[in-house]
Amino acid sequence: MAALRSFPPSAAKSEVSSVPFLGARALFSLNGKVALVTGGGTGIGSFLAKAFVENGAKVFIASRKMSNLTATADALNAIVPNSCQAISGDVSSKSGCDALAVELKKQTDRLDILVNNSGFAYGGVGIDNVPEQGWDRTFYLNVKALFYLTVALLPLLEKGKTDTNTASVINISSVYSFFPSAFQPTVPGGGATWSYGPSKAAAAQLTKMMAASLMKRHVTVNAILPGYVATPMTKHAPGDILSKAHPSGRMSSAVDMAGIAVLYASPAGAHITGTLTVVDGGMTLQQPDAAGKDVGDSFRPKRDANGTPKL
Ligand SMILES: NC(=O)c1ccc[n+]([C@@H]2O[C@H](COP(=O)([O-])OP(=O)(O)OC[C@H]3O[C@@H](n4cnc5c(N)ncnc54)[C@H](OP(=O)(O)O)[C@@H]3O)[C@@H](O)[C@H]2O)c1
């Protein structure tokens, strides 16, 4: 048997000896962080609030309906005592964003995570039937609120931040920011949410513009672009139909949403900014209209003899 050769210990020092602990509990920890999640009483916002609380953060959730906020805050406080607080607020105007910032400043003198999640989807069945009021409400909430709430909270977000300890702004956009389906199964009877897709595209563009501006101030800005998620927003469309729109065969879950949000908000995300992360089980890898085709023609608008969509 050949003798084993022994080598003297290397004189060179490996780079890893000076690298900090890289276990997941350090990389993705939110310990001691303070978060605000708009629309945190329901749906995706409540999933993210739960993820933040369960990874060590204190979370404020804000929207118009105190009953939903209180129910979610009570549920999260039962899991982690004193981890969640509800604040009433309407972010669909600049004055509403400013008022929410004033209320938050009464509760905390710093903020580490802001999730601009509150959103609204407005569906007109046909291109000829889209009331202006719904169009405007969609843009106020899905675009303007992201900008003015972030700006109003910048003093809290910047406080105490460094190039490795950054604040994180997370905007909830949508795959409909770039996926040009005019036949969405979430619209009863088929048809497009004409103002929703453009509003989410604007949210994605705003994410990149604000990221470019705010990195020097140690604030990252990123967006999550979900496919379909089972929430109050999608409850009127049958779940199996929405599931079929994804090649994965299912809608996105709370786990799918939480994973990317925790990454963005954690030390592991401190150098990630201006990114748009699609979480859709491959939905947008199909032909642009495939999601609509897959769910069947029964969800397309019926047309009269002139080709006009019928309600
Ligand atoms: N579900 C999906 O498939 C899906 C896919 C892609 C993107 N998204 C986006 O995900 C975000 C969350 O939606 P969701 O699916 O979780 O539906 P959701 O449960 O209906 O969430 C919408 C939230 O927005 C809040 N909101 C509405 N108007 C508001 C206002 N004027 N001021 C403050 N908050 C307001 C609502 O709370 P109040 O009524 O109490 O104000 C609610 O909590 C939205 O931006 C949506 O566009 C959803």
Automatic annotation (TrEMBL):
Instruction: Look up the domain of life of the source.
Output: Eukaryota
Q: PANTHER family, from UniProt?
A: 7-ALPHA-HYDROXYSTEROID DEHYDROGENASE, 7ALPHA-HYDROXYSTEROID DEHYDROGENASE
A Pfam family reported for this protein in Swiss-Prot or TrEMBL: adh_short
Answer whether the UniProt record assigns the keyword Oxidoreductase to this protein. yes
What keywords does the record list, in alphabetical order? NADP, Oxidoreductase
Q: Which residue windows does the record flag with biased composition (Basic and acidic residues)?
A: 291-305
Q: Where is this region: Disordered?
A: 289-311
Q: So what family is this one in?
A: Belongs to the short-chain dehydrogenases/reductases (SDR) family.
One molecular function GO term is:
oxidoreductase activity
Protein's name according to its UniProt entry: Putative NADPH-dependent beta-ketoacyl reductase
* InterPro entries associated with the record: NAD(P)-bd_dom_sf, SDR_fam, Sec_Metab_Biosynth_SDR
UniProt key word S-adenosyl-L-methionine:
no
